[in-house]
Each structure stands twice: as structure tokens, then as C-alpha cells.
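User: Quick sanity check before I run a bigger batch. Here is a single chain. Can you write out its predicted 3D structure?
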Amino acid sequence: MKKLKIISNPDVKEKFKKYPKHIRPKINHLRKLILDVANFDESITEIEETLKWSEPSYITKNGSTLRIDWKLKNPDQYAMYFKCTSKLVPTFKEVFGDLFKYENTRAILFDLDEKIPEDELKICISLTLNYHKVKNLPKLGL
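Assistant: Done. Predicted structure follows.
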């Protein structure tokens, strides 16, 4: 298996430290899923971890920006955010239906006590990290 190069902005680590103690494991778990998917995908050799709109963000050469966050205004939820003008969330809705809870075309929402459907979420992550390779395929190639 190849070694994934992670280019991490130190501000991301500080952002993770600022999450409430009970939220950190949730956000860290989403981060781990993203990095696991990127590491498993042979076509992804590098991923940038930075802050965009003050949210931990993950960017690959052929992907669309993927963000994760928890917000005080919705304290019982955390989310994975996608570019709202992409085909990503509309395709996830079409393929996975109500398996996930969505915020329009921009996010998948998770309740704090919810068990995340990881296999399906990994598919969403993979499509996002490879978006520019699949965006013209019917249902993004699913």
C-alpha cells in the first residue's frame, strides 16, 4: 500500500482542540474516515488538510473540497460539508435516500448519538475526493 502524503496546516490541530470535549471524538472519527479513504485510494497520493470558512477541510488534486464541523447553533449535530453547486449531495440523496440526513445540497448531518453508516459514507468521501474524475458520469459512476 502506498504512503499518503498529508499536508496539514497547524491551525487545523488548534481547531480540533477548541471543539467541546464530547465533540472531538466525533470530528476526529470523520477525519479518520477521510484519511482512510484517501490512503486506500491508489490514485490519491496527497491530501491537504487546512481550514476553509474556519472548518477543517480536505482537498485532493482531483477532488472537490470536503469540510467537517460542529457548530454551537446546532449543538446536537455535526456535519460533513460539500460544495453546494456540485452533483455530490443530490447524487447521495438519489442513491442512498434517507439513509443520511441532508442539509439541502451542501451537507450530510449526523446526530451525536447516531451510528454512522460508514461503508456508505466512505463511498461519499471517495466520490468527493475524486469528484473531477467522476462528475460527468451518470450518478457519479455509482
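The first strand starts at residue 5 and ends at 8.

User: Great, the batch can go ahead then.
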